[in-house]
Amino acid sequence: MGFFSWIVLGLIVGILAKWIMPGKDGGGFIMTVVLGVVGAMVGGYVSTLLGMGTVTGFNLPSLVIAVVGALLVLFVYKKMAN
Predict the structure, then answer these.
(1) Per-residue pLDDT for 10 more than 70?
(2) Which of 22, 37, 43, 67 is exposed most, by the fewest CB atoms within 10 A?
(3) CB atoms closer than 10 angstroms to residue 25
(4) 33 secondary structure, DSSP code
(5) Single pTM value for the model
(6) pLDDT for 66-77, tens place per residue?
């Protein structure tokens, strides 16, 4: 995936993660994109280690893996911020 594809995927995944796990957390648009991109990378890395697949583009399995990774990153971010 290209640079802009990661940003678009990161935005979508970051928004989904913040929607699934609402609450007070700092950051705005940029933080949402960063959360999504990092979450996609974490989700891809963990799922590859477990033999479940990777983030390969805009498809449903990649989106699910990326959202789970973003939820994990958001959880850790909220714990560290408090």
Answers:
(1) yes
(2) 22
(3) 15
(4) H
(5) 0.77
(6) 888 888 888 888
